[in-house]
## 1
Amino acid sequence: MKKDNLILITGGTGCISSHTVYKFINNGYKVRIMDNLLAHEGRWPSYINKKAQKVIGDVTNIKDWERSLENVSVVIHLAGTMDFHLEFSRFFQINTVGTVNLYEAVVKNKLNIEKVVIASSQFVYGFGRWRCQKHGILYPKEAPEKLKKENIGSSMLNM
Ligand SMILES: NC(=O)c1ccc[n+]([C@@H]2O[C@H](COP(=O)([O-])OP(=O)(O)OC[C@H]3O[C@@H](n4cnc5c(N)ncnc54)[C@H](O)[C@@H]3O)[C@@H](O)[C@H]2O)c1
């Protein structure tokens, strides 16, 4: 990935995304973030990297995707709603339709996006006891430790 490429990181104020923004900017990349700021009363939190370009937008709105994708080469899509809750339709709208909207905006506008990185589900850590193909039987508390060793942040930088 070239350093003059513009990277869009969605959900830029979130736990994973805000650290990802720092990681890329500190390694010399140009970053734009897109977040709906609903969790922050409409304001950018102070911990956001000052060098990041900022777009207030919602992944459920295709026009917001189109504004955010202007001149972008790489998308790291980390906006989403998490945890197990009963608002299934809201969950589906943000996580599934929100992601589909990215591809619709790209195809509709014939955008030249080189790479898209999508967040996995937190349920890769399991829900109760589960069997991981690589690590065998796991419980949620021990899974993050094992998966951490695979150093996801660094592997993104090596894309
Ligand atoms: N934290 C984990 O342990 C974990 C594990 C595996 C996968 N994931 C996935 O990684 C992604 C990020 O997780 P996180 O822990 O950083 O979550 P987070 O809740 O800290 O961050 C999510 C971000 O998305 C933004 N957002 C929510 N809805 C939005 C919308 N409609 N439009 C624009 N922005 C919106 C929020 O404002 C927030 O900044 C999620 O998809 C999550 O499922 C997280």
## 2
Amino acid sequence: MRTTDWGDGGARRADAVVIGGGTVGGWCAWMLRQAGLERVVVVERSTLGRGASSRAAGMVRSQGGTPTAVQLGIWSRDFYLRQADELGVDSGFVAQGYFMPAFDTEAVRIGQARVAMQKGLGLHVDWLSASEAASVTPTLAPDAHLGGSYAPGDGWLDPPRNVLAYSIALHRAGVEVIERTEFTAIIFQAKLNRFASTLHEGVEVFCLGVAAPQAGDCGDVVAFLVPFDDDGEFARTLHTPILA
Ligand SMILES: Cc1cc2nc3c(=O)[nH]c(=O)nc-3n(C[C@H](O)[C@H](O)[C@H](O)COP(=O)(O)OP(=O)(O)OC[C@H]3O[C@@H](n4cnc5c(N)ncnc54)[C@H](O)[C@@H]3O)c2cc1C
């Protein structure tokens, strides 16, 4: 067990502190418990799911543009599929299929190369001509695009239900959720010096979203960062058993 102090006057102990109770932080904290960490704490400035996670459209797509995104996408979709059996709750995932149209010849070239890469990673995906796509999705105008990639296993989930699912999973797993508590050091302290000095060496800090790149200067603190780059792809520095 390691010690940290999040400003309530007394030192409190945790094996991992997750900042932000959105879908990323929520499921991350649950997985840390599954991985064997004893005390996992989620610090959320509002209430669980009050950020983007309850407002998203919920599209779930394994058809990423990089091998890492494809592997994570496949893993995530499989996780959604087995939730009901494993957790007794689920995020409402529906494998409705996902079509990504191309509108010019360059997009066709890039899209077909992407499909080849995705197939190599085991994703069930195909390139459909415009007329083939129309037979899969009759509402698509066949003359409005040049075909596209189609993965029948992709689909969508229900964002509010997903928040409910990880809220229940966190509770059952014994993760401590501290709501209405803002972790201001991460957001507002320039080089995070004060934040770093409040932690003992070796504390694991999961920093999600836009705050993550700032956390690189945590000194001796071991920080697992989950930054999002300009294209919305993520996990350049994420090291996870999922990808091992
Ligand atoms: C309109 C819309 C549609 C979308 N559609 C899709 C889609 O179809 N498919 C898809 O995959 N993605 C979609 N997204 C993106 C998706 O919602 C986000 O990528 C995802 O929800 C991010 O999850 P998160 O946990 O990182 O962030 P959030 O859900 O935003 O969670 C971050 C949490 O951190 C908390 N927080 C922030 N700062 C602090 C602090 N200092 N201290 C404590 N807590 C803090 C916030 O209150 C919040 O609860 C969409 C997003 C929007 C807005």
## 3
Amino acid sequence: MVTFLVISCLIKLMSFTRTVLGTRGFSMVVRPSVYAQFVAGETEGEIADSMQKMSSLGLHPMLAVPIEEDLGESTGEQRYEDNLAAMLDCVLMSYVNGWSKNPMMQLKITALVSPELCVKLTSLLKTEQYDLNVLVRAMEGEEVVFPGLTESENTHLLFSLQRLNKIGEASVDKVRVLVDAEYTYMNPALSLITMAMMKKFNQQSAWIWNTYQCYLKESKNILLDAIQTSIDQSFCIGVKLVRGAYMDKERKLAQKEGRTDPIHESWELTNDSYNGCLEIMLNLISEKPERYMIIVATHNEESVRRAVTRMDELGLHRDGNSVCFGQLLGMCDHVSLTLAQHGFSVYKSVPYGSVDDTLPYLVRRAQENRTVLQGIRKERDLLRQELRRRLKEKITGAR
Ligand SMILES: Cc1cc2nc3c(=O)[nH]c(=O)nc-3n(C[C@H](O)[C@H](O)[C@H](O)COP(=O)(O)OP(=O)(O)OC[C@H]3O[C@@H](n4cnc5c(N)ncnc54)[C@H](O)[C@@H]3O)c2cc1C
């Protein structure tokens, strides 16, 4: 609780200081420890050292540019073009340095498409069907007119799809692009766009992945629907399986709008949902490892143990392409390192960027959950224990 409060206060202080100094001044003068804990740095030069260290420990860095927008924060076409350039740099950086033999990166669609349009598309999806083939044609530059959108919304969607097409073209056969899941009021639109990317780029292997949030009551159905679409439309599917990072805001919003809470009632139900989705994916992978891939993206030791046990039972390769594990930079290194030491493929999600761009990410890291912060405490206790052991060894000479 204390750690949570301290991080929240630090972030509030950061926001205040940013207002006083302005974005640039703030980035250069203030880099609080919470930034150092969860973000690798701002430039390639700054992050290269930690990437090398990570590689030497047997961990794969998975770069993420945590630029994102929520409702009311839209910044205009030029800013989305600038963000595209940042994403393309990220694709390049992910493979040219040889930090990982099977590079992956994360992508937030709301860095390239306005959240307002995503919300509108999400509500249209309740009544309209969008053909993935038509979206693919729009990605390739065809002047498609999408039903239900105004002229300016349609133009923005066409530009956005072309931006995503450029990312797909730059990364296919080189870097696996894992699209993040965000809020339920826009996830259906994000998934539609991601599925269109999968349809185009995942013919031979899963180069584009989607994220499935198991804290949602609907998570199992959403995953099963996606699998069915991939079968019907003949493409490979990559799944990032998470519990979900937006619980507090989702709950508050549902309560405010008088809707049913989209999140499972308890952590235990979220765990059951995570285990169920994991089981579905591991079984599919054991049958067709060339069509299905998963990253078990969690800090939860029980989930990790379950995945490891099931992989052994199903005879899945520890260092094969189809199953890997993921943790966030600054969280649960003991889990990542233990997995890597036992021959599993482990990715550490490495956000980089200015303090300003990474603020929403940092706020979530603080709010996300108290249980992960307990993980940090556990790590600290393990380090203390090891330090004490080594000191004792030095003093007494005993092993
Ligand atoms: C590589 C990677 C990528 C990620 N990408 C995304 C992403 O794209 N989108 C996203 O949303 N998150 C993403 N996450 C964040 C992830 O959602 C959180 O790190 C995760 O929720 C923390 O949970 P955990 O699985 O580590 O396990 P735990 O620490 O065991 O579980 C905590 C989680 O359980 C859920 N929970 C807690 N209490 C309750 C309750 N009372 N009722 C119901 N559920 C509860 C919440 O989701 C909470 O975050 C990613 C994480 C990793 C490691």
